[in-house]
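step=predict obj=SDR family NAD(P)-dependent oxidoreductase n=272
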Amino acid sequence: MKIIVITGGTDGIGKGLAMDSLKKGNTVVVIGRNHQKGQHFLEDANKIGAIERAFFFQADLSLVMENKRIVAEIESRFPTVDALILCAQHYRSERGETIEGFEKTFALYYLSRFILSYGLKNLMENADKPSVINVCAPGIEVGKIYWNDLQLTRNYSGLEAMMQSSRLNDLLGIGFAENDKINKIKYILFNPGGVSTSFSGEYDEVMKNQIVQIKKSAKPVQEGIKPIVKLLEKPPIKSISANMEGNEISLEHESFDRENAIKLFNITKNLL
C-alpha cells in the first residue's frame, strides 16, 4: 500500500482524494491549518475503519518555517512517500504579508509547493513509482509573471496573485524535472477545471458574487477527483506532464519555458 501526503486535505479536492485513498487501503497524511477540520477528517477516517492509517498535521503552509517543520516531521515518521498531492490555496482580495515578509498568496500557492516538492524528494525516491500532483491551473491563458515584482507590492489584486502563482507552478514543474537527475519522480501539473470546493478565501463583495455563480456550474468533488485518482494509480511515463480534467496538455507553450523555469528556481533559492 502507498503513503500519500496531501496539502489542503481537510476539504474540497484534497479531502475527497484523502478519503478515496484511505478506502483503498493507503496511508494518508493530511496537512492543513484548521484544527477543527483536521479532527473532522480523522473522525471520517475512523468511521470507515481507517483511523490507524490517517494522520493530520496542523500547519500554516504560508510560512517557510512551517513547511520545513512538516518536511522534518514526515521524514521522522515515514520511510517513503509514494505521492505528494499539492492542493492548498487561499484567495485574498487584499494584499497581506506573512511574519516572514512574503506576500501570502505567493507564499502559500507557490513557495510552499516548491519547498515540499524538493523537501520530500528523497523520501519519494524511496518509493517504487513516486509522483507529485500539483493541483493548479496549467493550460489557462490567463496570468503573467511579474519578474521585477513577484510579490506584487504594486497594483496588487487577488486574481492577479492567484494567476501569477499558477504560472509560477507551471515553471516549478518544469524546473523540478530539469533538476531531477535520478529521473524517477513523475511531476504532474493538474488543472481540475471547475470543481465545487469550499473556495477557501477572503473575498471582497465583487468576488463573493462571482464565486456564487461559479459554484452553480461547478462539478461535484467526487467527479472532479476522478482524473487525479487515475493519475495516482497509473502515473504518466514522462518526468513532467500537464493535464486538464484528464486530458494531457502540450508543454510546447511559453508557460513551460525551460529557461524561465531555471531562472525562477534560482530566484526562489535565493529568496529562501
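step=describe
The chain has one domain: 3-271.
step=end
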